[in-house]
Automatic annotation (TrEMBL):
Biological process per Gene Ontology, one example term: FtsZ-dependent cytokinesis
PANTHER family, A to Z: CELL DIVISION PROTEIN ZAPA
Name recorded for this polypeptide: Cell division protein ZapA
Function statement: Activator of cell division through the inhibition of FtsZ GTPase activity, therefore promoting FtsZ assembly into bundles of protofilaments necessary for the formation of the division Z ring. It is recruited early at mid-cell but it is not essential for cell division.
GO annotations of cellular component type: cell division site; cell septum; cytosol
Keyword presence, Signal: no
Assembly description: Homodimer. Interacts with FtsZ.
Cited InterPro entries: Bac_CellDiv_Activator, Cell_div_ZapA-like, Cell_div_ZapA-like_sf
UniProt KW keywords: Cell cycle, Cell division, Cytoplasm, Septation
Compartments, as annotated in UniProt: Cytoplasm
């Protein structure tokens, strides 16, 4: 089911149609609007340029989050492999102890 939500980004209303719930859509719009406002506050650029820079900032956050999640997945995989090796060692030691 698609949701229709009206959001305000940089003072302009937009109707967003998406599967996500209203709260999520409004949170995403607030992120975009906040980034545009931050760029505008720090520069004298026009609205379009500020919007492009805000999009670049959000893309930067996105790619850094992807890199971080990839790193965490690698760390979890490493821990799982270590766990499997330790379990095998425990099983081997239990078998050796039972044989005595």
């Amino acid at each position: 089911m698609l949701n229709r939500v009206v959001v305000t980004i940089d003072g302009k209303d937009y109707t967003v149609v998406a599967e996500e719930n209203e709260e999520y859509i409004k949170k995403a719009a607030a992120l975009v609007s906040g980034n545009i406002a931050e760029v505008k506050k720090q520069s004298r650029l026009g609205t379009l340029d500020c919007t492009v820079l805000a999009a670049m900032n959000i893309a930067d956050l996105y790619y850094k989050a992807l890199d971080a999640s990839d790193g965490l997945r690698g760390q979890i995989r490493s821990y799982a492999e270590e766990n499997a090796a330790l379990r095998a060692e425990i099983a081997k030691l239990k078998k050796a102890a039972a044989a005595k």
